[in-house]
Amino acid sequence: MIGVRRTLSTVQWTQIGLRSSAMSPATASASERREELRQAYRDAAACERCPQLVQTRHSVVFGAGNADADLMFIGEAPGQSEDELGLPFVGRAGALLDELLSGIGLDRGDVFITNVLMCRPPANRDPHPNEVERCSDWLWRKINLVRPEVVCTLGNFATKLLRDDQTGITRLRGRPEERTLGTLNVRLLPLFHPAAALYTPSNVELLREDFKRIPELLALPPLEQAAVDPEAELGAPVVAEPAPAVERPPGDQLGLF
Ligand code: URA
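Above: the input record for the complex with uracil. Below: its predicted structure, written as tokens.
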């Protein structure tokens, strides 16, 4: 196992307004994890950690797909269409992602798709490091609740964040590696970002080639997971005031199955 990510403390969970519960994602059932994911979605809708993004966003794009997916994709940040619709990858890059998924016999109902940032940076500027840091708590939460076996990082931002390393995507793409994200051992596959690939047709072909690694990775036996002490994982249960949630039916955005 090469990389090790920090585990969030109780204080960090509650700082971002997440309901703290005694639930351990490692031992919870799929339906318990899905409920917790829905709660995270409701809490995230009220997130105000990034002062500029709160002013300009229309939606908090939490992520969508199968809450118990074996395969998770992590892009950079919502663009204009995603911000308008509240769903990840619904523009041109999303159409390419759909096509690539279909090429390996999958669709959005089989996977969970999210981003490093949940709010659109104005004029699609790059995420600022402090925004990535603030939003990363939500991302670890999602990863540890969905518990995918394979995580595909799309582009530099997700790859650098999840590998905790500045090596660029051009060197890493298509090369799977084992990583520990939060408390979860996964196979990580860095891929070109579909939007970036659209600028360079030869990169679409490379992305298509790299996608072919995904079925192989999904067919491997699951990685062993460390025995988890729930108290170490999520912290002791505390009674924390949940952040005021914006009421919106979770199913609308999550499309949970
Ligand atoms: N690009 C991303 O990184 N994410 C989206 O959701 C859409 C475009």
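Notes for the reader.
Strands lie at 3-4, 64-65, 71-75, 111-115, 150-154, 177-181, 184-191.
Residues 1-20, 234-251 have pLDDT under 50 and may be disordered.
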